[in-house]
Write a structure and sequence with these properties.
With 890 residues, this protein is α+β, with helices and mostly antiparallel strands. It is built from 24 helices and 35 strands. The strands form eight sheets. Strands 1, 2, 3, 4, 5, 6, 7, 8 and 9 form a nine-stranded mixed beta sheet that branches. A hairpin with a 3-residue loop joins strand 34 and strand 35. Helix 7 crosses helix 8 (284-301), helix 8 (284-301) packs antiparallel against helix 9 (310-328) and helix 20 (739-774) crosses helix 21 (794-808). The longest helix is centred in the last third of the chain and has 36 residues, at 739-774.
Length: 890
């Protein structure tokens, strides 16, 4: 099976390698299985799919059967968050990524070590044509069989087979369960890549000469809780080869960033930013943006949306990290969405979901960037202030509580703060940040406990039978009081004037659930009366929060429980309308417009749904018209109880992440809506009455919110709108029909006035820049402006510096300004000046000391601040001295 070792080394495109891998194993009896989602199915232990075997875990353990014994995949993977987290290393090393592709072949009790080693060797030396004398193998120290097979099957000499310990060459699915030795194929990049270790060898060093390209896992044991290994009756194989790594080998480049998987993305960032990529440390922002663009595109395409929890929080961190580093590349607004098409062009053929959801992905990314942009400037200003203060105080770190304030106020993840700290020569007190986070969680926990205590304690431990809910069929029910619970716990009765929780054996009152608010009503006995203020569920019990208004309410008493019928009807109007609204949105936007939350109250409804962009006014009107049309059609509202499997088979919509029992309640409205729902509804759509959308807004990246009214509330809103219109006509001194035209006329006048004002400001700024440029001081072969100027903030100062740098051609500007009793300092130099030795960061740091402050930044651009405006002249003099020293001028 060995190949001619003098075969030519032929570079291959990554897409060709992927296709060749799948075809090679398909020709050898393997089922080509599509990549699973990045969101693992039914696996709460993982944030993201992080290896090719994740979708086959239940197959390996025998809990799931598949109609094949051999499989091959190209699996999309993410390692960011949780146990496997490469986020901090991205851009700093040649091979770490948050998103990567894992090529893998699998045997489920079919072939084992001999065939796995044979397939691997044939592919790398035959299909890929890698020279055999560059390949090494590692095996588990006790795996004599694998060591022997590498010699027999591949012809590897013993001195190129390295035995390693359990840490490197033994794989386990968990502390218990399937496990086994593994064997890795390493590629020797050559002695010119060796490190400076006394012994540069596999297992002895961790340098980039020895590149692991393929891992073969031999699952042959079952490990029990005591650690004992028992041979599996049907040993299996799980292999993984990173596409990015093997592409770097096949294309003969030093890092994954140089491959055709990343270079086009980096080129797109170059084109958009107008900056040139540097493969060295200066190219760090390019590499991070390229990596994060891939990860973002794939996560959003798989349904992950930015949020403050779980997977959504990881995505938000990744997006915001890219957005902040985009600032270092000159971006001043959303840009990552414009990189997405390049990702789709590269990967869309292999992963069609990317191309299918490209527009959605771009909208989600653009909206999240825009939301972060709103706080980024203010957050960066605070972060700059924190950095300046730390340096002025001689500290080497940003305190944990300072980082937490940035996170709590502006949504700055700690890794973003850590990046900024590193750029300023500081570090982040990560332990202090975690302590501040833990303290906040503890405060939240205490608040929750206090609310529970105020609600009247808990019914846990009372051993009560389940409450039977009869409110679907009746608004009145005779019931027995099973328990009365006050703040001090269970008691025999609640007297007039007291509030308590009451548990009944049966109730018509709906407990808050599924976005629908609880019913209110009353409990009446022969000698007493209590107002029901709220109802909540605790397990199978319905807890009625009551205020006793007359007599008393005793445990064991018989009561008549009654729902506030008018309020229930208003709630039902809004709940049925919510289903109609959901159906109308799906008809307009497609099946991606899934429910993300709701509130069904008597006075209004609120519906959150997935959408990548705001709805236009015309679209909002179409949705409202569609719902009102269905209301006028008097469609029947039919409720059925059926097995969950049957409901799904009939196409009933279920809330994502909601847990359902074997029997479910299905609410159908004509032929326009079918949803799993436990709420209360009308008998027909005509009972909804008028439906009016009051607002459409965003509540997060990729999530929109509609608030609407029905019935009497909609009629009242219509009357209010009419009154406002009449008042507006009076103020504008036109008839009602002329209000719009008059408002448009005034808006045009205002816009024209604002344009004139902006033009005047721009003219003044340009004149100031012209005068400053004319007075620029010659420094070497260039010219530099060193001056105090007028600027209201750092942004205006930066714009002036950009203008000056463009006018001077070669040189730059060192500017100072007074703002709110403080000093702003800024330095900006052209690339040729930087090459000659100018460094803006060190210059402003030196100058800032003269005004009692600190700061720093890049060689071409840096900002600083200080507390003493009276010493601006001294600060600028120090800047001149520092620049002369840097350039070696006299």
């Amino acid at each position: 099976m060995a190949t001619d070792e003098s075969a030519l080394f032929v570079p291959r495109a990554a897409a060709e390698i992927r296709r060749a891998f799948l075809s090679f194993f398909a020709e050898r009896g393997h089922e080509v299985v599509p990549s699973s989602s990045l969101v693992p199915e039914d696996d709460p232990t993982l944030l993201f799919t992080n290896a090719g075997m994740v979708q086959f875990k239940d197959v390996f353990t025998g809990r799931r059967r598949v109609p094949y014994k051999r499989a091959v995949t190209a699996q999309k993977c993410v390692r960011a968050g949780g146990k496997h987290n490469d986020l901090e290393s991205v851009g700093r090393t040649a091979r770490h990524h948050t998103f990567f592709e894992m090529l893998g072949n699998f045997s489920f009790g079919d072939y084992f070590k001999r065939e796995a080693i044979g397939f691997a060797w044939e592919f790398v030396t035959g299909t890929l044509g890698l020279p055999a004398d560059r390949l090494w193998a590692t095996v588990f120290r006790e795996d004599d069989e694998a060591a022997r097979l590498w010699q027999e099957v591949a012809g590897l000499p013993p001195d190129r087979i390295v035995r390693l310990g359990e840490k490197d060459n033994f794989w386990a699915m968990g502390d218990t369960g399937p496990c086994g030795p593994c064997s890795e194929i390493h590629y020797d990049r050559g002695p010119e890549h060796r490190c400076q270790a006394p012994r540069c060898a596999i297992g002895a060093c961790d340098c980039d000469r020895w590149l692991e390209i393929w891992n073969l896992v031999f699952m042959q044991f079952e490990r029990d809780a005591s650690g004992r290994l028992t041979p599996l009756p049907r040993p299996s194989v799980d292999t993984g080869m990173g596409l990015e790594r093997i592409a770097s080998v096949m294309q003969g480049v030093a890092s994954n960033w140089e491959t055709d998987l990343f270079r086009p993305i980096i080129a797109a960032v170059e084109r958009l930013s107008g900056r040139t990529y540097d493969p060295g440390p200066a190219g760090f922002p390019f590499r991070v943006v390229a990596d994060h663009a891939r990860t973002t595109a794939f996560l959003v395409a798989d349904g992950v949306l930015p949020s403050n929890e779980g997977r959504g929080y990881v995505l938000r961190r990744i997006l915001r990290r890219a957005a902040r580093l985009g600032r270092r590349l000159g971006f001043r607004g959303p840009f990552l969405g414009d990189v997405v098409p390049t990702v789709v062009a590269l990967m869309g053929e292999a992963y069609p979901e990317l191309a299918e959801r490209q527009a959605f992905v771009r909208e989600v990314v653009r909206e999240e960037e825009a939301r972060f942009e709103e706080t980024l400037d203010r957050g960066m200003a605070l972060l700059d202030e924190i950095v300046r203060t730390a340096k002025a105080e001689g500290r080497s770190e940003i305190r944990g509580e300072e980082a937490f304030r940035l996170y709590d106020t502006f949504g700055f993840p700690p890794d973003l703060v850590a990046d900024a700290a590193e750029e300023a020569g500081l570090r982040l007190d990560a332990a202090g940040f975690e302590k501040a986070m833990a303290e906040q969680r503890e405060r939240a926990r205490r608040d929750r406990q206090a609310k529970l205590r105020r609600a009247g304690g808990s019914t846990a431990g009372l051993g009560l039978p389940a409450t039977r809910f009869v409110g679907y069929d009746s608004l009145v029910a005779d019931a027995e009081v099973l328990a009365v619970v006050g703040e001090e716990g269970a008691k025999d009765e609640a007297a007039a004037g007291e509030e308590a929780l009451v548990v009944l054996d049966r109730t018509p009152l709906y407990a808050e659930a599924g976005g629908q608010v609880a019913d209110t009503g009353e409990l009446a006995t022969d000698g007493g009366f209590a107002r029901v203020l709220d109802v909540r569920r605790e397990g199978d019990l319905y807890l009625h929060a009551v205020r006793v208004e007359r007599g008393s309410l005793r445990r064991g008493a018989r009561v008549r429980a009654q729902v506030d019928a008018e309020r229930r009807l208003a709630v039902a109007r809004n709940h049925t309308a919510t289903h109609l609204l959901h159906a109308a949105l799906r008809r307009l936007l497609g099946p991606d417009a899934t429910q993300a939350g709701s509130l069904v109250a008597p006075d209004r409804l609120r519906f959150d749904f997935a959408a990548p962009r705001p709805l236009s006014p015309e679209e909002v009107q179409r949705v409202e018209d569609t719902v009102n049309g269905w209301i006028l059609d008097d469609l029947p509202v039919v409720t059925r109880v059926m097995p969950l499997a049957r409901a799904r088979a009939e196409g009933a919509l279920a809330l994502f992440g909601e847990k359902y029992g074997e029997e479910v309640r299905v609410v159908g409205i004509g032929d326009v809506s079918l949803e799993l729902c436990g709420g209360t509804h009308l008998a027909s759509t005509a009972e909804v009455g008028p439906f009016r959308i009051r607002s459409e807004s965003g509540v997060g990246s990729g999530v929109r919110r509609i608030e609407a009214l029905t019935g009497r509330a909609a009629l009242a809103a219509q009357a209010e709108d009419r009154d406002r219109l009449l008042r507006l006509a009076e103020l504008l001194r036109v008839p009602v029909e002329g209000v719009v035209a008059r408002a448009e006329e005034l808006a045009l006048r205002l816009a024209e006035a604002e344009r004139e004002l902006a033009a005047l400001r721009a003219e003044r700024a340009a004149e100031a820049a012209r005068r400053l440029a004319e007075a620029a001081e010659p420094v070497g072969e260039g010219r530099v402006v060193v001056a105090e100027v007028e600027a209201k903030d750092a942004r205006e100062l930066g714009a002036l510096a950009d203008d000056l740098r463009a006018r001077l051609g070669s040189g730059g500007a060192v500017l100072a300004a007074r703002s709110d009793g403080r000093v702003l300092l800024l330095a900006s130099f052209t690339p040729d000046f930087v090459r000659r030795g100018a460094h803006a960061g060190r210059l402003v740091a030196s100058a800032a000391r003269e005004v009692g402050g600190g700061g720093g930044g890049r060689a071409d651009f840096a900002q600083a601040g200080g507390r003493d405006p009276s010493r601006i002249r001294e600060a600028l003099a120090r800047a001149r001295e520092e620049l002369a020293r840097q350039l070696g001028a006299s």
